[in-house]
Fold this sequence. Notes:
Elements: H1 3-6, H2 32-43
Amino acid sequence: MTDQARTPPATPRACPICGKPVEQAFRPFCSARCRDVDLNRWLTGRYVVPGREDDAEDPE
């Protein structure tokens, strides 16, 4: 038996925006709309990756 035969089938993923099944063309989203909603959230600052307080801004 090969390793591939022992690997369980991939579980269907849900779109992180709306929860619908993921479409391969828009992975990890279900549609271009949900992909654009996610991008907008990053661009408007709704999603933020926190940094450490001692991270210095560019001095220039």
